[in-house]
Design goal:
Shape: elongated
CATH topology of the largest domain: Jelly Rolls
Number of strands: 11
Distance between the termini: 16 Å
Helix content: 10-25%
Length: about 230
């Protein structure tokens, strides 16, 4: 029985060490629901920059211009939910002198970043957008959830702007971006340009269930020994 009592703290300590040493896994956006804003007459359907799918996956040189006042909702797979970090990467062509608010002096652009902590079922609004005829969604009535940051295009250039959300009450299902470039007095005609967005999750260590089973077995052995000792007295 003494050996069992000594082993239990050792096993518990090993479990805690495994959890604390687990590294966060990052996942890029795998789905996007776009409510595009104004592109101010730009012929972006010829360049493809108004294609929401450009913002999916790892950075590859493509980007999605949200349009002035546009909104975009991003989902992630296989990480259905996330609870650690959000990394936002924006594309700014040309030089960028970063202002105090984090935007570029030449073409100041920015987005508000929200987190959605409930699963959603969305239906498109019948419209299309982009060269591939991407479906559009009316996100204006969506409950925005928690505003976690306002990010300017100067701060979000590669390697991106990281937002720590580990202290927030999650987990979360989606990241929602809302373009607010017009409020900056920007001469931008296409709003914030999203190159990529990713989230981080601390996975459950694969061996953790085995340690839990080990504790259960040790507890059972201790119980049997105690029962036998009681039966012989």
């Amino acid at each position: 029985m003494i050996k069992v009592r000594l082993l239990l703290p050792i096993i518990a300590g090993a479990m805690l060490a495994m959890v604390s040493s687990a590294t966060a896994a990052s996942y890029y956006a795998s789905s996007v629901f776009a409510d595009p804003g104004s592109l101010s007459g730009r012929a972006d359907s010829n360049t493809g920059r108004d294609n929401p799918s450009n913002a999916l996956g790892a950075p590859n040189g493509d980007f999605y211009s949200m349009g002035l006042g546009g909104m975009a909702l991003f989902g992630f797979s296989p990480a259905t939910t996330f609870d650690q970090d959000v990394l936002l990467i924006e594309t700014t062509n040309g030089s960028c002198s970063v202002q105090p608010d984090g935007s570029c002096q030449q073409y100041p652009e920015a987005v508000e970043v929200y987190l959605i902590n409930t699963p959603l079922v969305l239906s498109d609004d019948g419209g299309t957008h982009g060269p591939g005829g991407e479906a559009t969604y009316d996100l204006s009535s969506l409950v925005l959830g928690s505003l976690i940051a306002t990010v300017g295009n100067g701060d979000a250039g590669a390697p991106g702007y990281s937002i720590d959300i580990s202290g927030l009450e999650g987990p979360f299902y989606y990241v929602l971006l809302k373009d607010i470039s017009a409020s900056l007095g920007s001469i931008s005609k296409d709003g914030f340009d999203v190159a990529a967005i990713s989230v981080s999750v601390v996975p459950l260590p694969a061996a953790l269930p085995l340690y839990g089973a080990g504790i259960a077995v040790m507890g059972f052995i201790g119980w049997r020994r105690k029962r036998k000792a009681s039966a012989t007295t």
